Amino acid sequence: MSARNLERQTRSFLSNEVPQIQQHGGSFEIRDVDEENGRVTVAIGGACSGCGIAPMTMKAIRRRLPEEVDDLAEVEVVRAGGPRAAVMPSVTDEMEDMEEYEDYDPPF
């Protein structure tokens, strides 16, 4: 599959199957598409940068996106940083390691 098709299918999945990102003031950006290795890098930002359940959303995207997009083998989901980040990166890194997120299965 071409990089363009991987990006299109990824964008469609995120827009249609994970509408909570945009409904809650978050955003996503497809940062990189590696068609040769079937890898896509997605950054979530906006309100997601400081959201307490963002680690769960990221985990769900990593797990579910390859099931939905043809020829996609791996997804890297990162938080968008910069001046619009709502909390410090060190805090969000700690949140991602919390046990509470281990077995969470969001509804999307």
TrEMBL record:
Biased composition (Basic and acidic residues): 1-10
UniProt biased composition (Polar residues): 11-25
InterPro entries: FSCA_dom_sf, NIF_FeS_clus_asmbl_NifU_C
Chain spans, region Disordered: 1-29
Stretches assigned to the NIF system FeS cluster assembly NifU C-terminal domain: 19-76
Protein name in UniProt: NifU family protein
Organism encoding this protein: Halobium salinum
Lineage of origin: Archaea, Methanobacteriati, Methanobacteriota, Stenosarchaea group, Halobacteria
